[in-house]
Amino acid sequence: QMPDVYVFALLDEDAKSVDPGNFERHWGVFNYDGSPKYALRLAGGKGVVPAKGVRYLSKQWCVLRPDASPTDPAIVGAVGYACQYADCTSLSPGSSCGGLDVRGNVSYAFNQFFQSASQQKGSCGFNNLSVVTTTDPSQGTCRFKIMIDTGRHDLTHQEDSGAARAAAAWGTVVAVLALLAIVAL
Fold first, then answer.
1. For residue 178, which of 58, 5, 13 has the smallest C-alpha distance?
2. Higher-confidence residue: 161 or 66?
3. Which of 140, 77, 63 is nearest to 105 (CA)?
4. What are phi and psi of 33, to 5 degrees?
5. Whole-angstrom Cα Rg for the chain
6. Once rounded to an integer, what is the mean pLDDT over residues 6-24?
7. Cα–Cα distance between 51 and 33 in angstroms, integer?
8. What is the mean pLDDT of the chain?
9. Which long-range contacts (CB under 8 A, 24 or more apart) does 55-59 make?
10. Each residue of 23-50: pLDDT tens digit?
11. Residue 157: how many CB atoms within 10 A of its CB?
């Protein structure tokens, strides 16, 4: 017999309050980019599928410069600034990035800020402690994100509009929620 299932959140919410705990932003069934976090099976045995047509920014990451010392006194302020404006909760113990070393923690914080700023020029400054790299710094379960490109759109027809695509995407989200509700019955 199938268990009752209740979906709390379809997507992770990076801006949600962490007052109850750092886990609060990570209840989603899907990652920020529409990729499934879990291998879920719905009624009829069909699995959840990733969002289609997602475009990412350039494959570049902001990391701690190789010659920078993690004990540099400016690191604390730079990481504090990065995590004030970007979600660093995945660095918490027990989280997907909780096992990184000091260099990894600093690099993750810098990259979260850089990606949240849509890789804008100057968003990887951090008092000359950081550098942009094209080598993916992801380690184990810790995925260093690349932000979704919101400036370009994959048009299939000339008359397609962003609003029509958004409505279609949310229609798919509603359909998935309806299927999950059926599974819960």
1. 5
2. 66
3. 63
4. -100, 10
5. 19
6. 66
7. 7
8. 80
9. 55/148, 55/149, 55/152, 55/154, 56/146, 56/147, 56/148, 56/149, 57/115, 57/118, 57/119, 57/146, 57/147, 57/148, 57/149, 58/119, 58/146, 59/134, 59/136, 59/146
10. 666 667 777 788 887 787 777 778 888 8
11. 7
Q: Confidence class of residue 156 from pLDDT cuts 50, 70 and 90?
A: very low
Residue 181 has pLDDT above 60, yes or no: no
Q: What span, in angstroms and rounded, lies between the C-alpha atoms of 113 and 116?
A: 5
- Side-chain half-sphere CA neighbours of 39 within 13 A: 0
Distance of alpha carbon 89 from alpha carbon 22, whole angstroms: 5
Angle at 118 between CA 65 and CA 145, to 5 degrees: 65
| Joined tokens for residue 113 | 């800020």
Share of the chain above pLDDT 90, in %: 44
Residue indicated by tokens 């990606």 = 115
